[in-house]
Specification:
This protein is mostly helical. The protein has a single domain, classed as Ferritin, CATH 1.20.1260.10. Helices cover 65% and strands 0% of the residues. The chain is built from ten helices and no strands. Helix 4 packs across helix 8.
């Protein structure tokens, strides 16, 4: 695999992750429990859309086959998607959404902080922009972790149940394959394995403040970098891509 092919796959992985996250968060629009949160979650969805576009636009340029960000987002099948598994999990109740988001938000801030050091100016530029949004996303989800965990008996129980269910998807964020390792070694990508300890420290502090616990010895799910996903992704893509697939040549 050439450097360009590896960089293209690298762009797809983060572009797909943010694109799927954006759709999941967009599903909360008009469904928030209070108006402020309804707007906040919709704005978070828009942030993820902007980040997804940045990765996919650059990915299309690197691939150099004339594919746009829309082509990559709407005209690839489920097995072609390489997003992190945690991003495709259904929203569930509010606590499940908050736990899913918090686990990724804590990763995202650390990841983009490291990516600002990339020798690739485009990737470093994407990171500089995204890091501002990542700080807000983490503050939002971490605050809700504590509010739910230290709230009512019901909110505490739902938060704990959400952590117990979602924890097994967090290991996927730190996997390093040959593409990741090669780009990390060349100063382009991030060594995700190296930020896991920092991520764990952030998670454990917030979990402690929320008076909940993380599971012990939980099996971690994997496979997203090879196009292996949960059944939730296929259903989500069918909805997300329906209009673009029905009218592939439509101009807006």
């Amino acid at each position: 695999m050439t450097k360009e092919e590896m960089l293209f796959q690298y762009c797809l992985r983060m572009g797909d992750t943010h694109n799927v996250f954006a759709h999941r968060m967009g599903e909360w629009c008009t469904n928030g429990h209070i108006l402020e949160e309804d707007i906040a979650m919709t704005n978070i969805a828009l942030d993820h859309i902007g980040t997804a576009r940045a990765w996919l636009i650059y990915g299309g340029e690197v691939e150099n086959k004339g594919r746009t960000e829309d082509d990559l987002a709407f005209h690839r099948d489920e097995r072609d998607y390489v997003n992190m598994l945690i991003s495709e999990l259904p929203n569930g109740n509010f606590a499940e959404t908050i736990v899913r988001n918090f686990m990724f938000d804590a990763f995202s801030l650390l990841y983009y902080t490291e990516l600002t050091k990339s020798s690739n100016e485009t990737l470093a530029g994407i990171a500089q922009k995204v890091i501002k949004e990542a700080k807000y996303h983490l503050k939002h989800s971490a605050n809700w972790m504590v509010r739910l965990g230290d709230g009512t008996e019901e909110s505490h129980q739902k938060l704990q149940s959400a952590i117990d269910e979602i924890w097994r998807f967090t290991g996927n964020m730190f996997e390093m394959d040959d593409i990741d390792q090669s780009l990390s070694d060349s100063g382009i990508g991030v060594d995700c394995a190296q930020i896991k300890e920092q991520w764990m420290a952030v998670v454990m502090q917030t979990v402690s403040d929320a008076k909940v616990t993380i599971p012990e010895n939980k099996y971690m799910l994997t496979g997203s970098k090879k196009g292996i996903h949960t059944e939730a992704l296929g259903h989500m893509l069918a909805e997300m891509q329906s209009l673009a697939r029905a009218y592939p040549d439509a101009k807006w």
